[in-house]
Task: structure prediction
Amino acid sequence: MEISVPTLLRIKPNALFKTGKYLRKENFRTIALFWGEGIKNLFGSQLTISLESSEIAVRYEENVTSCELETILKKAFSLPDKIDAIVAIGGGKVIDYSKYIAFLLQLPVIAIPTSVSNDGFASPGASLYVNGKRRSLKARIPYGVVIDTEIISKSPVSFTISGIGDLISKYTAIQDWKLAWYAVQEPVNDFAVLISKNAVETMVHYNNKDINDLEFIRLICGCLVMSGIAMEVSGSSRPASGSEHLISHAYDMVASSPTLHGIQVGVATYAISAIQRNRDKATIKKVLNDTGFFTYVTKNPLNKNDFIKAIRLAPEIKSNYYTILSEKENIEALISFIEEDDICKQLIV
Result:
């Protein structure tokens, strides 16, 4: 199996201003440039100056407003010839859009996330709409990831909180993967587990968990990149996604007002860790407390009725995907836990 990892990786203050220099160093002279909604108004002048100063030619550019597969297919095969790379700047929508175009055209893609609410910007998958339904499709892991930590630090706090929730979930995802081995003999890739575990534990063992600290932000970004690489190594989302992600996907479907994916995942991770009797459940609780995750969600709680519906629906989200919720008694145990646990009573109301 061929494994790809990002060749270009820059996570530092003011990295956006050096994007042209990074592309030129990789010999990418002509690009297609895709902007997230509203991103060009915020960062267009900085990126344009950077590209022009390094003589990078933009042969095509577009503001991405949707992630419909049909639209992407049409766009991919109508791009101009002689493009060296795809560049995407913005949130998950534009990066997934661009990763799939890069996958179809077998071109390198450079991801420039302006927020880090989950690990999708560095993963080999894309969340797209197929016939009106969201699907996770295989895509192209970015050739390059450029993250300007100054920009990330100024993004809404909810996005960074979401990134922390998504990162801490690796503990429960790995546990679910191991349970799948014992229950249905699904193979576990030990190296992918190691990468994913090291990613989350790098955050766990960092002393300063102030989400306004640029070094902590840099560390979170790097850890999320490693989570994406773990998925590439395993050939699946297993090292990064378990029952907690299924609950979040289900919550998106049933809730009248879903929130950011990583926030939903973080809440589910805390609850799932108790049902799993996860050896790291105390660590999960401490990190979510120390980073301000619990405080944020207490002020912006999830809906209890919708969350319970999501728990019941979660096992149906992915077929042949064993997790602890594949056993019905664990569904009931989880519902009882969120109804009785003091922290859950504040996070899910």
User: Anything to note?
Assistant: The beta strands are 8-12, 30-35, 57-63, 85-90, 109-113, 125-130, 133-138, 144-148.
